[in-house]
Amino acid sequence: MQKSNAIVITAGHLTSDNGKTAHGLIRGSERFRILAVIDDVTAGKDAGTVLDGRHRGIPVYASLHEFAKNAKEEAKYCIIGVATKGGVLPPELRDMLREAIESGYSIVNGLHDYVSDHPELMELANKRGVEIIDVRKPKKFKDLHFWHGTIKNVHCPKIAVLGTDCALGKRTTTRFLTEAMRKAGYRAEMIYTGQTGWMQGAKYGFIFDSTLNDFISGEMEHAIVTCWEEAKPDIIFIEGQSSLRNPSGPAGAEWIISADANAVVLQHNPPRKRYKGLEDYPADIPSPKQEIELCKIYGAPTVAVTVNTMKMNETDARQWASQQEKELGVPVILPLEDGVDRLVAIFKDMIEKSIAQV
After folding, report:
1. Closest Cα partner for 67 from 36, 99, 26?
2. Sign of CA dihedral 43, 44, 48, 52
3. pTM of the model
4. Span 229-258, average pLDDT
5. What phi-psi label fits residue 87: left (phi over 0), alpha (psi between -120 and 50 degrees) or beta?
6. Which has the closest alpha carbon to 166: 65, 88, 278, 265?
7. What is the pLDDT of residue 166?
8. Percent of the chain, pLDDT > 70?
9. How far apart are CA 290 and CA 269, in angstroms?
10. Which residues of 108-123 are buried (b: 16+ CB within 10 A; e: fewer)?
11. Residues 244, 296: Cα–Cα separation, whole Å
12. Greatest Cα pair distance in the chain
C-alpha cells in the first residue's frame, strides 16, 4: 500500500482522550504518512513527544497557515484526529475544515457527523475538486453480509482483544500484537472494527458502530473469512470495541461467539472505576477477574491482561500488574512501556497446535 501524505487536525485536543484517532496515527499508519499535527495548544513540539515522550519527527503547528508556511512537503489529506462526544462536528472543527478545503486538502472524517451532510462544506469541496471520505458512513444494503457459519472454515487462532471499558487502547494493543507476531516470523493479520484502524491501514475489517445490528455478526464473520482466504495468516487479532458490560453500548459477545474467538486478551485501566462518560451512572467497571470469568462463560479463555497505565505512575502500575499476575495466573503486561513480545510464546504455541498446521 502506497502511503498518501496527510496532516491531522486536533483543535487543541491532542493531549486528551478525545484525540485517540490522532494518537493512533502518530504511532503508525500504513495508509497515510503523517507530516504534521495541527493543534494550537501544543504547537512547537513533536507530536510523538507530546503523546508518550517518544520523538517521531511529526511537528505540531498552531494552524494550517503555519504548516503551509513551514512544511517542506505538501499534504493531500487533512484527517480529523478527534473523537468528539456524540461524534458531532463542532463549530471550531467546521471552521478548520472549511479552511482546509479552501486550501485544497481532501478530508478524512471518522466522526458520526458526516462532512458530506454539511451542504456548505460539500459545495466548497466540489468547487475545489477535493475528496470527502466519511469513514463511518454505513455500507449499502447490497454490500452487507449475514452470518452463515463459514467462520468454522478459518483454522488459525483468532484472538479477541477486549477491554473492561471503551477508550482503553484496545486498537493500539491489537496493532502491537500483530506487529510482534510478524516480527517473530509469523503471518499475522489485524481485523479492524473502528475508523482509526482503517486509517492506520488495516486491510480487513468493518466499522462496528456504523453497522446495522442485524449484520454485525455477518460483517465480523465476512471480514475474518476474507482475511483467512486471501492472506492465509497464522494468527488473527480482532480489535475490540466498548466492553461486555458497558451500559451505553455493550459489545464483545460477537467477538467471542460470532467470530469464534479461541482466546481473549483483556485490556484494563486500574484507576478507572466508572465507565467513561458515565461517571455519575451507578455501574462500576468490573475487575479483570470478573471480566475473565464472563469471557469464559461466553466460551473463550483469557490468556493475558494488558494494562492501560493512564493516571498511574510506573511503579504503581508494575506493582499492580505483578499482584494481578499472581492472582489471575496469566501474564499481565504494560504494552506502551514494555511492548508485547512476552506474549509471543503463548501465540506461537497456539499456532503450532492449530488445525492449520496439521
Report:
1. 36
2. negative
3. 0.95
4. 97
5. left
6. 278
7. 94
8. 99
9. 14
10. bbbbbbbbeebeebee
11. 12
12. 62
134-159: per-residue pLDDT in tens?
A: 999 999 999 999 999 999 999 999 99
Nearest-10 crossing angle of helices 20-27, 170-183: 10
CA distance 8 to 107: 10
Helix (H) or strand (E) holding 99: helix 91-102
C-alpha cell at 234: 497464522
Q: What is the pLDDT of residue 356?
A: 60
Q: How many CA atoms are closer than 13 Å to the CA of 245, on its beta-carbon side?
A: 17
Alpha-carbon span 184 to 170, nearest angstrom: 21
- Which region holds residue 308: left if phi is over 0, alpha if psi is between -120 and 50, else beta? beta
pLDDT at 357 over 70: no
Q: pLDDT value at position 87? A: 87
pLDDT at 358 (0 to 100)? 54
Taking the chain, what is the end-to-end CA distance rounded to the nearest angstrom?
32
For the chain, which domains are there? 4-134 (3.40.50.720), 143-357 (3.40.50.300)
Looking at the DSSP bridge assignments, the partners of residue 80 are 9
Neighbours of 353 (CB within 10 A): 12
